[in-house]
Amino acid sequence: MSHPDETALLEYVAAAVSAEEHCRVDEHVAECDECLQRLRALFYLRDDFASVWASWTLREHGRLRRQVKLALALETVAESAPDFAEQARSWLGSIARSAVRAVNVLLDRAGETAGIGPGMLPDGYVFRLQPAVLGVGAPETEAGRRLLRTSELLAGGRINEAARELDEARKVDARLVQAAGSQITRQGKRQAQIVVDARRGYAALRYWPEEGEAIHGFVLLLPDTEPQRYLAAGLQSVEGEDFLVAEFRNVPAGGWEVYW
Questions:
Q1: Could you tell me if 246 and 219 lie in one domain?
Q2: DSSP code of 3?
């Protein structure tokens, strides 16, 4: 049996499958630790975050899927990263009470192309793409339009199509797609800025916390293809600045989601 997809596992946990399908999943997870871990995360959400689980509809599927992915990563962080364990448990406990903030990032180090697209942001947050950084502007050109199209594709989780669009933009002006940036605002105030550089495998998030806001203390990068892997970086203050920054170096190529 092939690995069950997220919908099949959600229906299994919700007891919305036939007895035959239930047995097939049981037989699979008995031999597959990866899917067993995914199933455990779903049961964790069902049992501990009843309000989140009860809200699940087909339209809510994407949101719940992100919650599951993040919950699984935070459990791993709490177990394997002592420096972040307390913050990870706090974040895990707040998943059902707060909206997930995530931005999609694409890094292709072989082709030196980088893209950023909005992932999941709460109501009131505004994402603005800054197609290039490091002194290279974002002109109204074919390359610029292709970069905006890349952002739209990333927002829809269409990583392969986004990569092809970036490759076409690179043919027009390679400099534009080596690095990228974005800015996120709320009520007209800057909240976060994300910058990626494909040549160096570098990603960074700058965050401007609101007064009295509880900070999780670190940022997570989760790959689209292997949710059991993660990269975590602490949010550090910068002397003379009013923002916190988390930096990632030597990020492997591929599509990633930035959670903070």
A1: yes
A2: P
Indicate whether 37 and 164 sit together in one domain.
Answer: no
Indicate whether 134 belongs to any domain.
Answer: yes
Is the pTM for the entire model greater than 0.70?
yes
Range of the domain at 57: 6-94
* Interatomic CA distance for residues 166 and 176, integer angstroms: 10
Compute the half-sphere exposure of residue 137: CA atoms within 13 Å on the CB side of its CA. Answer: 3
Backbone angles phi, psi at 15, to 5 degrees: 60, 40
Q: Is the pLDDT of residue 99 over 80?
A: no
Place of tokens 């007895």: 19
Say which residue the tokens 């049961």 belong to: 43
Same domain, 121 and 201: yes
User: Beta-strand (E) ranges in the chain?
Assistant: 102-108, 113-120, 125-130, 179-186, 189-197, 202-207, 218-223, 231-234, 236-237, 244-248, 254-259
User: What tokens appear for 149 in the block?
Assistant: 């199209």
Same domain, yes or no: 131 and 253: yes
Maximal CA-CA distance, the chain: 62
Whether residues 157 and 77 share a domain: the answer is no
Q: pLDDT digits over 152-201, tens only?
A: 898 888 888 999 998 888 888 777 788 899 999 998 899 999 999 998 99
One domain, residues 80 and 143: no
Please say if the pLDDT value at position 232 is more than 90.
Answer: yes
Domain for residue 1, yes or no?
Answer: no
Looking at the fold, whether 55 and 132 belong to one and the same domain comes out as: no
For 238-259, the DSSP string reads -TT-S-EEEEE-SPPSEEEEEE
